[in-house]
Amino acid sequence: MPLADRLYERRLHELEESDDHGKSKKLSQLRNRLPAESLARVEARVKVTLHDMALDELRTARELTQQRLAETLGIKQATVSKIERQSDMYVST
Asked: 0.85 cut: is pTM over it?
């Protein structure tokens, strides 16, 4: 298991055992506690995942409707639907 994953698992265990269990923390606080190596790995995974997502998956992940995306792009909703139905339509193209 890579070092970053072991560190993540250890920190997760520490949080589960801590006195403040159940209290909410801001994501920025948790990110600031991550070692630089772990943070770099997470950012790299996010970049690859977003690059490989189909347009409809990306739209859904961003919680956008086809109508809202169409308005943002200045096109019709039907055009967004047509683009999403194209089997090779990925964000990278």
From this structure: no
